[in-house]
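A note from the maintainers: we've had questions about how concatenated examples are separated. There is no special marker in the raw files; a new sequence line simply starts the next protein. For clarity in this README we add a label.
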Amino acid sequence: MTSVTAAGKTAVLDVGCGRHKISDAIGIDRCKFPEVDVVHDLDQYPWPFEDNAFDRVICRHSLAHLYSVEAAMEELYRLTKPAGIVEILTPHFSSDNAFTDITSRCFFGYRSMDYFCVNRPMKYKYGSCRFVLKEVRISFLDAYTFDGQHRRFNPFAILGLEWLINRYPRSYEHFVSSILRANEVYYRLEVLKQC
């Protein structure tokens, strides 16, 4: 197991970082690229880190490629410190990008993380991990950079369309998403556990 010690510094894990690792993060991926710090098959658990090793964990377009989202969520929970943040960005199920990559195994909608979050009204919960959903957002463009960079120009936000679909996400996903396709869905989860 790899120990993460960052005296006075936020420990960040970039899961499935590929060639675009977040600066100052530890990158883990199954592919060996120069940016990857730890090469590991993400479908093999546990990942090679100690419990509660990270303050922040980022999954950019990686969760959809794993065989078991439930197992991955349990692992994200294990690795993240109490009150730590897990950020997930994945193609929305209506996105053409959800089907473009043949290694995608799972598709996500506005309520997909409700099954893991104690503050959401889903009747059934998966696994023993407990998160608090802090934010969920559907976006029409690549809106989240995670490293403080500015988002690119988003006419959908300016026109108020993103606000409208995020105000009424179930209506959007049920009636409109097959016509006006979203690109991504972003979740920000806080880990709820005792140390």
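[label: protein 2]
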Amino acid sequence: MRPARSAGWLLLAGALLGCASGAAPSASALPCASPVPAPGRLRLALPPESFGRTLSVQQQLHITASGHAVDLDAVLEITPATLTLVAMEFGQRVLTLRFANGALCEQRSAKLPAEVRGADILTDLQLALWPADAVRSSLPSGWVLAEDSARRVLTHNGREMETVTYSGPTRWEGRITLQNVAYDYALVIQSVVTAP
């Protein structure tokens, strides 16, 4: 991680810890509902325990869509009970997601485009990070996930929908590039593990 971002990471880690401890917006303060993706999109809402481990990572996110680009700093924490993502832009929190007990709780800044939907973020995270067998077991009819050591390809009725490419053998370390062919956006995630 670049030294210039260290203060941002400290703020972000504090924001995530605040969410976990209830000091800053508690889960009950976040609007919660069943995850509903954009129309026609795949919906993954696997329980956090199906990830199979506890994980905390700092991430730099680069999102490009419709000719626009945005860079965010994020902290992702996965425990057997909860998935929490806090994202910041220029030191200000723009998104908090918490997924537990089948409900997705979301707090977002008005600066965040409406097209950035919590349910779609949850789906992309689980598609990229969860064990392939767990993802496959939840796919609706017609959806297929193929995987090799460096790549995942998601197809629907034979049509490629998303590809995920990894820089190394551990899915949540290093660089992940997710290209959504169907909805024409790309997400590049650079991650550093902070807790196993």
